[in-house]
Amino acid sequence: MEFTASQIASFVNGKIIGDENAVITGVSPIESGENGHLSFVAQERFADFIESSKCSVLIVSEKLLTKKDYSKTIIVVEDAYLSFQILMNLYKEMQGRKSGIEDGAVFHETSVVGENVYVGAFTCVSEKVKIGDETQIYPHVYIGKNVKIGKNCVLYSGVRIYDYCVIGDNCIIHSNTVIGSDGFGFQLTKEGYQKIPQLGNVVVEDNVEIGSNCSIDRGTIGSTIIGKGTKIDNLIQIAHNVKIGTNNVIAAQAGIAGSTVIGDWNMIGGQAGIVGHIQIGNQVKIQAQSGVNSSTKDGDILYGSPAISASDYRRNYVHFRNFTEIVSKMNEMAARIKELENNSKD
Amino acid sequence: MEFTASQIASFVNGKIIGDENAVITGVSPIESGENGHLSFVAQERFADFIESSKCSVLIVSEKLLTKKDYSKTIIVVEDAYLSFQILMNLYKEMQGRKSGIEDGAVFHETSVVGENVYVGAFTCVSEKVKIGDETQIYPHVYIGKNVKIGKNCVLYSGVRIYDYCVIGDNCIIHSNTVIGSDGFGFQLTKEGYQKIPQLGNVVVEDNVEIGSNCSIDRGTIGSTIIGKGTKIDNLIQIAHNVKIGTNNVIAAQAGIAGSTVIGDWNMIGGQAGIVGHIQIGNQVKIQAQSGVNSSTKDGDILYGSPAISASDYRRNYVHFRNFTEIVSKMNEMAARIKELENNSKD
Amino acid sequence: MEFTASQIASFVNGKIIGDENAVITGVSPIESGENGHLSFVAQERFADFIESSKCSVLIVSEKLLTKKDYSKTIIVVEDAYLSFQILMNLYKEMQGRKSGIEDGAVFHETSVVGENVYVGAFTCVSEKVKIGDETQIYPHVYIGKNVKIGKNCVLYSGVRIYDYCVIGDNCIIHSNTVIGSDGFGFQLTKEGYQKIPQLGNVVVEDNVEIGSNCSIDRGTIGSTIIGKGTKIDNLIQIAHNVKIGTNNVIAAQAGIAGSTVIGDWNMIGGQAGIVGHIQIGNQVKIQAQSGVNSSTKDGDILYGSPAISASDYRRNYVHFRNFTEIVSKMNEMAARIKELENNSKD
């Protein structure tokens, strides 16, 4: 790609200081700017980079400018962060979307594929599958029978969707994530564990993004549900019959055990675990590595394993850090009590 | 699928109250029953659903019935839970098994494939592989050279089995699980870490189920072993030369480090970690998120990181939760001692 | 494979005691030696196995020998461990490397493939990809556009490399690892979370090994970097814009959150978590399951969640284990203080 400063300025309605024909061929983080690249300065604490950055063109929030001229081209906007995001979105769109059916993709004759769909090489589409318009499915994806995939989704290479699962519109699923593998259900017998058939499915609602290498198990009967707008990072475990509401954010390597119900707008930290068969309310924050083993109220902030109120955990943990000192103090107190007792006998 | 109440009653030897021609087209969990669906009531605490459920047909344990007539069709059995499981198993069987070799599957000329085997599109079967009768292998599976797979197994899409690994009979391996990747073994040198070749394999014994996205590394020399009847959930790490006995249950995201030996009938909780080179006995329970760093005796119940007796952990954790209060009390005691000391000087 | 004792002795420059024509067909760990197999004894504590092992041929460190004759063939060397490693490396090499392009591999016409490269069936190589000489890419690998892969790499089956990522020379990446999936970046709005485009890439430097089922996200802008010689185990999460230095060792199921910078020669334990936007120095050791939430100095040894000095953690944890006893003692002290106070009123 190649853009001039004046092209960029026109995208974000900015004013140019310097060479409007300056050309950029890439973007850099401001801390490691490169010659010929674009970056942005939106915060006071990065203002020194306006002078020192090696970038050829910078988008800068108006309030951060102190001079009339700079050694590089400046595009002046009201909010440089916002403008930069607009540009990144534009750039992403300009990279284009894939379309067409590649050689080697396999479709069952009963599958129904929408308009302007991309299906990559060696992807398998089983019987009675429906794929919505504008959806992009990369190579090596497996889609089991009776699966429904909505419009404008992206499924990256190696995604596996087991039979009867449902994916909404505008969903993104990253590579090697598995949707609909069997729930972990066994009946104990004297001879060993007997498998309980897992006959349900997974329903992923609209606008959900799921990272790479996640496992989302199908319900035993009924559905495992990922609610609208929820965002799931990488390497996450969602067990059978979990119901997750709308607009949750779940960080990498978290795990949610079977049949737990999670409300809306919660934030679940990385490597956190939630036991089965409990209710998490709304707007709950669970700190990374916490282990939640009982139901929560709306707005709770939790930390620890087992998790308690985060402020209590932090306060108690300060004492834990001083535990050796506390015990010394206690021993010294014991000695002083002994002394007092001896004295009082006199 | 479509069944009448009388068909279902005949499968489980039940007695019908109501319309024997009532038709069901699906199954529901009792809490979210749907018209036209089947569900079951086996416990007192769900007895209200016998009246209120929207399901058209319910299987109910005899002792829970209090009336002669209901608004829906009831199939009366001795133990509704058991009867329902029989039905689920029947239903699973009726969905049929896949068979035949799909176009695009690739076989080395020296591989040997049993009777009535299914191999999906784009699955690669390398030299000298043996696949037992009735085994089903979905698309996109990679099977390295000299691998042996037993009878009646199911390998879902995206499973990878490295060279020389052995899978027993009646095993199920879910999508994107990797069996036999190199153990994590390096020799420290001044220039960096030198790879130690990993020349062993993985042996998965009969009746093992392994969830999706697991990593089971090959032995350095000798085998990593998963014993008969052991069930492994999703996203689990089993390191090189681990030996796991029979009938263990290991929950999602647990990890077991190199060369550790695990007995029989243990339960390992989600996100638990077990260090390398230790022995876990039999019938041990390890709570979720625990970190076991020393060998255990049979029947131990462990919790915490590092793990200690679960009852001790819980009792101590209650004090941890009150730590701020405990410290306050201690400070108050210190003041009272001071006071006593001052008084005694008088 | 089949080797005679004299062949083996010649590889490691050893002296034979016993039958120089003894044939071995495999290798065993010393604890579970098999007839016809080779093993080694390098340490005093395994010396009893020189007599008792069922192996037909043993490589033994000279200093451990006490007799002139043994019931099996002995190959005498100075350091048996070293000699055995030389043999394992030789054996690994003798297994040969794969080469050639298998039927079913797909290449974009603009891709450039080096000499003596192996590409397995159903692997997809996108536009402008460059693959270096001697590199081996197994079946079912997806390589996005503009990806560069160096010389002498091994990418196992099911690896996914998103667009624009760069892999150095001599790298090994195990099955189902994903390089370059989108970072987990969203902007909160009233309607829900808006995706922030992830336009950067991942750079994996030379001599890096990455285990199976890892997720390494691309930078938002700029690169996520895995430094030269760093070794990464299985099921590990590396978030967007993380920079990892040289010669680090990261154990299974660890996770590193966004933009964190990690120096050289660190050891990160299994299931450890490191929060985003901090600096880890050099030669730091992070114990398994720890949660590091602030920057560290060189040489720190850390433990706990949140992590503190490992020696402090261990010392404090001893008190935690005795917490119930400590509280009892405190209560008893309180009673004695009360008693003293009562006495002093008399």
Automatic annotation (TrEMBL), chains A, B, C:
<dbReference type="InterPro" id="IPR001451">
    <property type="entry name" value="Hexapep"/>
</dbReference>
<comment type="function">
    <text>Catalyzes the N-acylation of UDP-3-O-acylglucosamine using 3-hydroxyacyl-ACP as the acyl donor. Is involved in the biosynthesis of lipid A, a phosphorylated glycolipid that anchors the lipopolysaccharide to the outer membrane of the cell.</text>
</comment>
<dbReference type="InterPro" id="IPR011004">
    <property type="entry name" value="Trimer_LpxA-like_sf"/>
</dbReference>
<comment type="similarity">
    <text>Belongs to the transferase hexapeptide repeat family. LpxD subfamily.</text>
</comment>
<keyword id="KW-0677">Repeat</keyword>
<dbReference type="GO" id="GO:0016020">
    <property type="term" value="C:membrane"/>
</dbReference>
<dbReference type="InterPro" id="IPR020573">
    <property type="entry name" value="UDP_GlcNAc_AcTrfase_non-rep"/>
</dbReference>
<keyword id="KW-0808">Transferase</keyword>
<keyword id="KW-0443">Lipid metabolism</keyword>
<feature type="active site" description="Proton acceptor">
    <location>
        <position position="240"/>
    </location>
</feature>
<dbReference type="Pfam" id="PF00132">
    <property type="entry name" value="Hexapep"/>
</dbReference>
<comment type="pathway">
    <text>Bacterial outer membrane biogenesis; LPS lipid A biosynthesis.</text>
</comment>
<dbReference type="InterPro" id="IPR007691">
    <property type="entry name" value="LpxD"/>
</dbReference>
<dbReference type="GO" id="GO:0016410">
    <property type="term" value="F:N-acyltransferase activity"/>
</dbReference>
<keyword id="KW-0441">Lipid A biosynthesis</keyword>
<keyword id="KW-0012">Acyltransferase</keyword>
<dbReference type="GO" id="GO:0103118">
    <property type="term" value="F:UDP-3-O-[(3R)-3-hydroxyacyl]-glucosamine N-acyltransferase activity"/>
</dbReference>
<comment type="subunit">
    <text>Homotrimer.</text>
</comment>
<dbReference type="Pfam" id="PF04613">
    <property type="entry name" value="LpxD"/>
</dbReference>
<keyword id="KW-0444">Lipid biosynthesis</keyword>
<feature type="domain" description="UDP-3-O-[3-hydroxymyristoyl] glucosamine N-acyltransferase non-repeat region">
    <location>
        <begin position="22"/>
        <end position="89"/>
    </location>
</feature>
<protein>
    <recommendedName>
        <fullName>UDP-3-O-acylglucosamine N-acyltransferase</fullName>
        <ecNumber>2.3.1.191</ecNumber>
    </recommendedName>
</protein>
<dbReference type="GO" id="GO:0009245">
    <property type="term" value="P:lipid A biosynthetic process"/>
</dbReference>
